UniProtKB/TrEMBL annotation:
Domain of life from the UniProt record: Bacteria
Keywords for the protein's UniProt record, in alphabetical order: Membrane, Transmembrane, Transmembrane helix
TM region positions: 12-30, 36-56, 76-95, 147-165
Name the UniProt record assigns to this protein: DUF4199 domain-containing protein
InterPro entries named among the record's database cross-references: DUF4199 (IPR025250)
Keyword Transmembrane: yes
Keyword Membrane attributed: yes
Coiled coil spans: none
Length: 169
């Protein structure tokens, strides 16, 4: 397993740091950086996975790559990326309560602006449940959401990239 970890931790760590920097930069530009940071994550996650698997294939495994090796390297890369990104965002939100309150108020404002449409689609009870959930949201919830939306797509990107880069004897 160390063979896979050694090839993937560099790219996963770098990707996680990029996601954290993206969050900070977007927080500086906008009140709620969470949605745009998710979009950035959809761009960076496949790049990180591709680079990690390609590096493993070319420099560690002598140009060969089985599907399982690609999945292992990709798993390590996207898990590290998601963990670093989530932990970093959580720490930033714990330190900066103003940023967390800005995110919370932006989400409540969007909910209020779309109240009629939401009630028309899912009903008053669901709207109230969503509003209560947002009011009870914590910094950890924001960080976990960010991490999950990097880890879950990472699995699908890893499957596709592992199939594309697979080369056996």
């Amino acid at each position: 397993m160390m063979k896979y970890f050694g090839s993937a931790y560099k790219f996963g760590s770098l990707g996680g740091l990029f996601c954290l920097v993206s969050f900070l930069f977007l927080a500086w530009l906008y009140g709620d950086p969470t949605n745009l940071n998710l979009v950035f994550g959809y761009i960076i996650v496949p790049i990180v996975i591709f680079l990690a698997i390609k590096y493993f294939k070319d420099y560690t495994n002598e140009g060969m790559l089985s599907f399982s090796e690609g999945m292992s390297v990709g798993f390590v890369a996207y898990m590290i990326l998601g963990i670093i990104s989530g932990l970093g965002i959580w720490l930033v939100l714990l330190i900066s309560d103003d940023l967390f309150q800005s995110i919370l108020s932006a989400k409540l404002q969007i909910l209020a602006e779309n109240k009629d449409m939401i009630i028309g689609q899912v009903g008053e009870k669901s709207f109230d449940t969503t509003k209560n959930s947002i009011n009870e949201m914590t910094a950890l919830d924001v960080a976990l959401n960010d991490s999950l939306w990097k880890i879950i797509p990472g699995l699908f990107f890893t499957i596709i990239i592992s199939i594309i880069l697979r080369k056996t004897q």
